[in-house]
């Protein structure tokens, strides 16, 4: 495979704070020699770890983007010991359009890793992150949320590592982040095609989030994101002094261990949820009804939970189609 075709205006080896663009070649009718300007910031000050912060991997997940834009403006070289790289609009065309996927090539960045330098814009971005940015990093944090169609209890998430030592590392990161819920996931959506998959291939410590969603930003979710991200930077040893001194609250550690944790729409129609985020539910319990506006005299189809758990994620739009995720659960988890 060839090298990246994305040119960085930022010199990642240089000390100081640089904010500029990654130039993604994009030759189109209105601009023969044009490029897409992907904003990136590199703040480097001497020796220390490299932390890669990412948001806008899905363009309609805004809490992380706001958090990293504010951090981009706040952090100066004097604050840093090592290097912080901030990519706040990772799938730039999707972020500009406020969409999960790119309007240029319909690419879902978090289903495109390890990417391809000879592919469309989304594949080129994935390849740049996995072949250029991740190899520079000791740790990466990818700030997601539920996007347009889902809403989460503000959460941290990480894969449930096989070894106890690796699990302890990721649980520690989630405890430092301090979201109300922390999810260990066995079979992640997107499998190894995600930035997490890339981080595992490159051998970079990784944590993600699901901060909220429904295409909104709330003060509550933003506070979780901003305070948690600042605590993580301090924990990684990349700050000269903490950005704040607020300790993390207690997080509810849960596991999401496969398909039985997800409830899907059994039919096409209008979704009536029976439960809310944070509710504890039982296997077999009715989760919601799908009504049929075209035949209102027809009895609705009822969706059921397959297992016990706490509702950590729910569908937002009222209209639904068979196969849409309506809810997903977590179940309380302890290493002991
Ligand atoms: Ca996402």
Architecture overview:
The chain contains 6 helices and 19 strands. The protein has helices at residues 62-74, 92-97, 121-136, 164-177, 195-202, 219-236; strands spanning 7-8, 16-25, 35-45, 50-55, 82-87, 139-144, 150-152, 155-159, 181-185, 205-210, 252-256, 262-264, 269-273, 280-281, 286-291, 301-304, 309-315, 319-320, 325-332. The protein has a 15-stranded mixed sheet that branches. It is globular and about 65 Å long. The chain starts with 6 loop residues before the first strand and ends with a strand. The structure holds calcium ion. Calcium ion binds at residues 58, 61, 144, 147.
Reconstruct the topology from this structure:
Blueprint: E1 7-8, E2 16-25, E3 35-45, E4 50-55, H1 62-74, E5 82-87, H2 92-97, H3 121-136, E6 139-144, E7 150-152, E8 155-159, H4 164-177, E9 181-185, H5 195-202, E10 205-210, H6 219-236, E11 252-256, E12 262-264, E13 269-273, E14 280-281, E15 286-291, E16 301-304, E17 309-315, E18 319-320, E19 325-332
Parallel strand pairs: 4-5, 4-6, 6-10, 8-9, 9-11
Antiparallel strand pairs: 1-2, 2-3, 3-5, 7-17, 8-10, 11-19, 12-19, 13-15, 13-18, 14-17, 15-16, 17-19
Helix pairs in contact: 1-6, 3-5
Bound molecules: calcium ion.
């Amino acid at each position: 495979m060839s090298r990246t075709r994305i040119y960085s205006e930022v010199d990642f080896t240089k000390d100081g704070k640089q904010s500029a663009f990654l130039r993604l070649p994009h030759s189109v009718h209105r601009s023969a020699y044009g490029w897409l300007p992907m904003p990136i910031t590199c703040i480097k000050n001497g020796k220390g770890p490299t932390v890669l912060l990412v948001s806008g991997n899905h363009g309609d997940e805004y809490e992380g983007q706001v958090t990293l834009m504010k951090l981009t403006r706040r952090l100066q070289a004097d604050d840093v010991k090592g290097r912080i790289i901030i990519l706040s609009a990772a799938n730039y065309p999707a972020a500009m359009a406020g969409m999960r996927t790119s309007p240029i090539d319909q690419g879902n960045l978090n289903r495109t890793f390890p990417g391809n330098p000879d592919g469309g814009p989304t594949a080129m971005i994935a390849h740049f992150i996995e072949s250029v940015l991740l190899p520079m990093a000791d740790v990466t944090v990818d700030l997601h949320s539920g996007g347009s169609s889902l809403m989460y209890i503000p959460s941290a998430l990480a894969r449930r590592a096989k070894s106890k030592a690796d699990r302890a590392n990721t649980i520690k990161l989630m405890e430092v982040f301090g979201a109300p819920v922390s999810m260990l996931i066995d079979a992640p959506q997107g499998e190894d095609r995600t930035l997490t998959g890339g981080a595992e291939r490159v051998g970079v410590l990784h944590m993600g989030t699901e901060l909220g969603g429904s295409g909104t930003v709330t003060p509550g979710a933003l506070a979780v994101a901003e305070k948690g991200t600042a605590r993580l930077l301090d924990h990684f040893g990349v700050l000269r002094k903490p950005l704040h001194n607020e300790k993390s609250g207690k997080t509810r550690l849960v596991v999401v261990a496969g398909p039985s944790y997800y409830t899907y729409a059994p039919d096409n129609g209008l979704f009536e949820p029976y439960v809310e985020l944070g509710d504890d539910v039982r296997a077999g319990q009715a989760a919601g009804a799908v009504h049929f506006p075209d035949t209102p005299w027809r009895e609705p189809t009822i969706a059921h939970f397959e297992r016990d758990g706490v509702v950590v994620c729910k569908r937002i739009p009222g209209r639904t189609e068979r196969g849409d995720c309506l809810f997903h659960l977590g179940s309380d988890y302890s290493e002991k």
